[in-house]
Amino acid sequence: MERVFNFSAGPSTMPIEVLERAQKELVNYGEAGMSVMEMSHRSKDYQEIIDRAEGTLREVMNIPDDYKVLFLQGGGSTQFAMIPMNFMHKSKKACYINTGAWTKKSIKEAKLFGDVKVVGTSEDKNFAYIPKTTRADFDQDADYAYICQNNTIFGTRYTKDSLPDVGNVPLISDLSSNILSEEVNVSDYAMIFAGAQKNVGMAGVTICIIKDSFLENTNDDITTMLKYSTHVAKGSMFNTPPTYAIYIAGLMFEWVKNQGGVKELERRNNEKADLLYGFIDASDMYTGTVATEDRSLMNVTFVTGDADLDAKFIAEAKEQGMVNLKGHRSVGGIRASIYNAMPLEGVQKLVNFMKEFEKNNR
Ligand SMILES: *Cc1c(COP(=O)(O)O)cnc(C)c1O
Description:
Elements: E1 5-6, H1 16-26, H2 44-61, E2 67-72, H3 75-87, E3 93-98, H4 102-110, E4 115-121, E5 144-148, E6 150-151, E7 156-157, E8 171-174, E9 191-195, E10 206-211, H5 212-215, H6 228-233, H7 243-258, H8 261-282, E11 287-288, E12 299-303, H9 307-319, E13 322-323, E14 334-337, H10 344-360
Parallel strand pairs: 1-13, 3-4, 3-5, 5-8, 8-9
Antiparallel strand pairs: 2-10, 6-7, 9-10, 11-12, 12-14
Helix pairs in contact: 1-7, 2-7, 3-4, 8-10
Residues 10, 75-77, 102, 148, 152, 174, 176-177, 195, 198 line the site of pyridoxal-5'-phosphate.
């Protein structure tokens, strides 16, 4: 069986080079005489693996020294609760921009801990755009402002140049589906987090990047495992970390570096997205579901305008080795997730298929 082009939103495709390296090291890592899976997290070999993963991430993202990097468990979804639990405790007020699904879930959790002010929402058009906000929308005494940088389900995104102007409010952003896909200025944020299973490898680890001065605001009267300071104090090893997922993330960071870094991946991601959106815009059959200026580089959502035809498209693409193209149930239609590890060749094959399909189903 040949490998397919996997357009899954997550867990998602990984670079073959990373899979093959993991395979080579699977049974016996270096001189260890055992697999990474079998190692004590307190061993010297493992300490080197986690240190190298953090160091390479710092290098490829250009993370300033006054930010901590944590490798946590519980997925992006646990961050939805940990963030308000830790940080919503001075004014007990936070500003959220609602761009659908992922922010809705975050808002639900935050409401358990304080006052949530939704300062922008695109719910009126089923989250097909990024709502405009101004500095005046953000209460300057709020504990933080919160956005989802790339909405995996609806296919919208903020770029580093279109972040909301929040004034002096600390900005927290969910980069689960676009971390390392394009350049960001880490210093624009008080905190960034990302589950690994979209652009950073396998499920099981969540990366948190938090500014030291923001960490000083944390609430200490909360349960140990859900307190950021616990994990900062122990270098993400308060308890057994997801050792293998961190190892794989480390291989991914090295892969990013070897490709020429985030800048080069951003160039490739733009090339892939331009090819796909360009074709959608030129075609009579396909329509993008998102406002042009807010289109995601990672999750390309579109429809044929006929649900039966969408289903036929997805089925025929699968027969040709292009899988997981079904849109999320809340949007319908088709979604092609084209993360860092999706080669240009996969997108070219998809566009060629789309051309043929349009010709045959006019
Ligand atoms: C997938 C995803 C999440 C949730 O991640 P889990 O690890 O499944 O909890 C959160 N935010 C965004 C933007 C996502 O794409």
